[in-house]
Amino acid sequence: MMPAEGVSGNIASNKKDHRRDRAWIEIDRQKLRHNVDTLQKLLPPGGRLMPAVKADAYGHGAILVAGELNAYGIRHFCVATVSEAVELRQKGIRGEILIMGYTHPEQFSLLRRYRLTQTVVDYAYARILNHYGRKIRVHIKIDTGMHRLGESCSHLEMIVSIFRLKNLRIKGLYTHLCAADSPSGPPEADKHDFTVGQAGAFEEVVVRLKKQGLPCPAIHLAASYGLLNYPELAGDYARVGIALYGVISNRNDCSERAGLLAPILSLKTRIAAIKELMPGETVGYGRRFVAARKTSIAILTIGYADGLPRALSCGVGQVLINGHHAPVVGTICMDQTIVDITAIPQVAAGDVAVIIGASGESEISVYDLAEQAGTITNELLSRLGSRLCRIMV
Ligand SMILES: *Cc1c(COP(=O)(O)O)cnc(C)c1O
């Protein structure tokens, strides 16, 4: 069934023509494939990727991305919430889907109905899961120093007790490295030592479980930085998120291997109208831009509700039109953004403006935007909104 004329949104958007959309995301399929291949080569023998497709695949479109990864033969995914997992399953994503966050007991029935795998966030939660009375697939999370989710690695007896709960089908045991963003090197030595310590504490749990004769499930430690900087630690799965999308969190984080990846997302929008301002006229809410001379402006059909950070207002951010930079003037609105096109020849209503990606010889990267907005790529990407259409190109 074709979507109704003019209807936007990310469902089934892969098949529709985006040329009538007000703002959209293009995912480069070849680059996604390249990143998958690159990351797979880093894995230890027998290791597999478990892509993190939470937060709508960091804004890239979870169904679009996971569907593509399924086609590559990837059969493990992780998400943050049960509703994210249910949506993947409802849209036909196959394989194991691990929920890394907390699921409320009233939603346990969804775990079974959609064949999902729940994280055991600590011993108390394991007992609540067991009390549900029906078999649930789980991975047990071990806290080795991040002090977020997971039963403490020092509580071995409790971890052993989790293995004895009869309704838990234990398929995995994992921890999360929280300082793997910096490999070895003098200024970062404490982070390096901390990471090695986390891996050691996790290994110790595994060894002691084995000594107790417990069946050892699959183990995993690494997210993107873990795999990029400590590939030897990865174990059976690497829960890669940001690296799969071709970037790291900060451009300047030291990771030699980050350069092997290719950013896969472009963000584009359209010019709704063009206006000429006389000197002294102002633009937008609060009249924050005052034209010093005759000025041409273009009104773009994207705003902060689409995830374009309002911090890019008033010249902090720019877009590309026909390969030229056009600075943002005034404050970014919820649904519109206004840019100065005085210096750009031959711009017309309906033309495309590039927010992230290449235009002619120029390019604006997600790093540029994240830095201008004072955040990391992960936040910027994951906040790209649900009104944006997402397509694979
Ligand atoms: C989000 C998340 C990941 C993926 O992290 P990246 O740094 O984006 O690769 C992996 N593991 C856990 C527990 C997470 O919450």
User: How would you classify the helix and strand content by structural class?
Assistant: alpha/beta
User: Which whole number gives the mean pLDDT?
Assistant: 94
Model regions low in confidence, pLDDT < 50 over at least 5 residues: 1-15
Instruction: Tell me the number of strands.
Output: 20
- The span between the termini is 21 Å
Bin the helical content. 25-40%
β-strand percent reads 15-25%
The major sheet is characterized as: 7 strands, mixed
Number of helices, counting only DSSP H or I runs of 4 residues or more: 11
What small molecules accompany the polymer chains?
Answer: pyridoxal-5'-phosphate
The rough form would be described as: elongated
What is Rg?
A: 24 Å
Distinctive features:
393 residues, seven-stranded parallel sheet, disordered N terminus, 20 strands, binds pyridoxal-5'-phosphate, alpha/beta, single chain
